[in-house]
C-alpha cells in the first residue's frame, strides 16, 4: 500500500487560484520537501446521477434484465426515432447540473463560442466540473480546448493520420484497452516498467505517439464510452486505468520520458477533463515511491484523489473494481486473448460488438447531420453521404432515423432537406430496381413453369 505521507490529500472548496490547467501544474520537483497544498472541490464519479431507472426498478421489486441482451434483441428498425438510443447514451441529467449546463450553454452561444459540433451536454458538464462550476474559468478552458482542436487538427486525424507502426509501438510500449470494470467503464492498462523509450524513438516519433494518444482519446469519447453505455444500460463517461510500474525508478524519468509524460498529462487534463474514474498504480517498489514524490508534485488534488498507489499485493483491490474475466493473467486475472497475440493487442470490449457499433454509427450520423444543419454548411456532395448509402445498403430502415436531421425551422433546413431528399431519391431508385428485378424474376419463373409443362405434355 502507499506510504502514509504519499496521500496527504485535502478536499475542500476551491480558493479561486489562477490555473492554466487543473491536473497539470507545470514541471515542479520537490523531492522530500513540502509544497503548498492546493485545494479543490471533489465531485463524485461523473456517472453518479446518470443511471437509468435501475434504482426505481429495484425499489419496485423488478428483476433487471441483461442490458446488452435486451438491447440487442431489437433490430435497428425498432429505433425509428433514435430516442431509445439517446435515452441510454444520455442517461438521466441531474437537475442542478442541467440548470448550470444550460446557463453555461446560453453564455457560450450568446458570445458565439459554441460550435454546434461541441454543443453537447456531457462535454459542457465535464469542463464545468473541472473548474468547480466557475463559469468564467470554464469558458476560458473551453475556448482553449476549441483552439487546441483546431491547431492540432483533431477532427481530421482519422483521415490524415495513419499509425502504421501500431504493432511495433505496442512491443516497446505495452498499453491498451481491455474489457470493462464492474460498473461498465472501459479499463485501460499500461505496463510502464516494460517501456523501452530508445526503441520507441526508433519505430516512431514522440509527436506521432502523441497523435496516436489523441486518436485513442477521441475513439474513447465517440465509440468506447457510448458502447459501454449501451452494454451497461447507463451512461458511461470515464475510464478505470491500471499502471504497472514494476521496476520503475528515478532512472526511468529521463528528459525524453518527462517530455512524453508532461505532454500526455497536459492533453488529458486540459482537453479531456473528468474522463478518469480511478487510476491503480501497482507493483510500486521503493524506487518508484521516490519517483512518485516528484511526480505527484505536479498533479492537483482532484487527480490525486483518484489515484491508488499499491505494492505487489494489489490483486484484492483490483478485483473489487474489475472482474477476473476482464483482467489479463499478467495482472492476476483469467484472460489471455491468445487469438490476438495478448490482451493489450486485442482492444477487447463492448466497442468491438458489430451490432453496438452499428447503433452508435446511426446516432453519430444523426448528430453529424444536425451539426451541419446548424452550421449551414451542408454540401449535397458531402463526403459523408456515401457512408449513409453504405449503411442504407446494410439496413433498409436507417433512413427513418435520418429523417430527424432535417432541422425544421433553421435557416439551413432547406439544405438539410436537399441532402435527405437526395438520399430518398437514391433509396427510391434502389427500390424501383429491386421491384423490376423481382418482376423479371417472376416472369422468368413463369417461363420456366410454362416450358416444364410443355415438356411434360404427352407427345402425339
From TrEMBL:
Q: Which keywords, in A-to-Z order, does the entry hold?
A: Coiled coil, Golgi apparatus, Protein transport, Transport
Membrane topology per the entry is: Peripheral membrane protein
Q: Where in the cell is it found?
A: Cell membrane; Golgi apparatus membrane
Q: Which organism is it from?
A: Glycine max (Soybean)
Q: Which family does it belong to?
A: Belongs to the SFH family.
Gene name of the record: LOC100807344
GO CC, any one term: Golgi membrane
Protein's UniProt keywords contain DNA damage: no
Q: Which Gene3D superfamilies match?
A: CRAL-TRIO lipid binding domain, N-terminal domain of phosphatidylinositol transfer protein sec14p
The CRAL-TRIO domain sits at 165-339
One Pfam family from the record: CRAL_TRIO
Protein known as:
CRAL-TRIO domain-containing protein
Annotated GO biological processes are: post-Golgi vesicle-mediated transport; protein transport
Instruction: Write down the InterPro entries for this protein, in alphabetical order.
Output: CRAL-TRIO_dom (IPR001251), CRAL-TRIO_dom_sf (IPR036865), CRAL/TRIO_N_dom (IPR011074), CRAL/TRIO_N_dom_sf (IPR036273), PI/PC_transfer (IPR051026)
Q: Which domain of life is it from?
A: Eukaryota
Q: Which residues form a coiled coil?
A: 423-457
What molecular functions are annotated in GO for this chain?
A: phosphatidylinositol transfer activity
Keyword Metal-binding (UniProt): no
Amino acid at each position: 500500500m502507499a506510504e502514509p505521507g504519499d496521500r496527504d490529500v485535502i478536499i475542500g472548496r476551491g480558493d479561486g487560484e489562477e490555473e492554466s490547467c487543473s491536473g497539470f501544474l507545470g514541471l515542479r520537483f520537490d523531492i522530500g520537501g513540502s509544497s503548498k497544498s492546493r485545494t479543490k472541490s471533489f465531485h463524485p464519479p461523473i456517472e453518479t446521477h446518470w443511471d437509468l431507472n435501475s434504482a426505481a426498478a429495484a425499489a419496485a421489486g423488478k428483476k433487471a434484465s441483461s442490458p446488452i441482451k435486451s438491447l440487442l434483441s431489437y433490430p435497428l428498425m425498432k429505433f425509428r426515432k433514435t430516442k431509445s438510443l439517446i435515452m441510454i447514451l444520455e442517461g438521466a441529467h441531474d437537475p442542478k447540473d442541467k440548470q448550470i449546463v444550460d446557463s453555461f450553454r446560453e453564455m457560450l452561444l450568446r458570445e458565439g463560442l459554441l460550435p454546434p459540433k461541441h454543443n453537447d451536454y456531457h462535454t459542457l458538464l465535464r469542463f464545468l466540473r473541472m473548474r468547480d462550476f466557475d463559469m468564467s474559468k470554464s469558458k476560458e478552458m473551453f475556448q482553449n480546448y476549441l483552439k487546441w482542436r483546431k491547431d492540432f487538427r483533431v477532427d481530421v486525424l482519422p483521415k490524415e493520420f495513419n499509425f502504421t507502426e501500431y504493432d511495433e509501438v505496442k512491443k516497446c510500449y505495452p498499453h491498451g484497452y481491455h474489457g470493462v470494470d464492474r460498473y461498465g467503464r472501459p479499463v485501460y492498462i499500461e505496463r510502464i516498467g516494460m517501456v523501452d523509450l530508445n526503441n520507441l524513438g526508433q519505430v516512431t516519433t514522440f509527436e506521432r505517439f502523441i497523435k496516436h494518444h489523441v486518436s485513442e482519446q477521441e475513439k474513447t469519447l465517440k465509440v468506447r464510452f457510448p458502447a459501454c453505455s449501451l452494454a451497461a444500460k447507463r451512461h458511461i463517461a470515464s475510464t478505470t486505468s491500471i499502471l504497472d510500474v514494476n521496476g520503475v525508478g528515478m532512472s526511468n524519468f529521463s528528459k525524453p520520458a518527462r517530455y512524453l509524460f508532461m505532454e500526455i498529462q497536459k492533453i488529458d487534463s486540459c482537453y479531456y477533463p473528468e474522463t478518469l474514474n480511478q487510476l491503480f498504480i501497482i507493483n510500486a517498489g521503493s524506487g518508484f515511491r521516490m519517483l512518485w514524490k516528484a511526480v505527484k508534485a505536479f498533479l492537483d488534488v482532484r487527480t490525486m484523489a483518484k489515484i491508488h498507489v499499491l505494492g505487489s499485493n494489489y490483486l484484492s483491490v483490483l478485483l473489487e473494481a474489475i472482474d477476473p474475466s476482464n483482467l489479463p493473467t499478467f495482472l492476476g486475472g483469467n484472460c489471455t486473448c491468445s487469438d490476438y497475440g495478448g490482451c493489450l493487442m486485442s482492444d477487447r470490449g463492448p466497442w468491438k460488438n458489430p451490432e453496438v457499433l452499428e447503433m452508435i454509427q446511426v446516432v453519430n450520423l444523426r448528430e453529424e447531420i444536425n451539426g451541419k444543419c446548424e452550421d449551414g454548411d451542408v454540401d449535397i456532395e458531402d463526403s459523408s453521404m456515401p457512408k449513409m448509402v453504405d449503411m442504407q445498403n446494410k439496413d433498409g430502415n436507417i433512413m427513418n432515423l435520418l429523417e430527424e436531421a432535417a432541422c425544421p425551422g433553421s435557416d439551413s433546413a432547406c439544405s438539410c432537406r436537399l441532402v435527405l431528399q437526395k438520399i430518398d431519391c437514391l433509396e427510391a431508385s434502389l427500390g424501383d430496381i429491386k421491384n423490376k428485378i423481382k418482376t423479371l424474376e417472376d416472369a422468368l419463373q413463369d417461363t420456366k413453369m410454362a416450358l416444364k409443362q410443355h415438356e411434360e405434355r404427352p407427345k402425339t
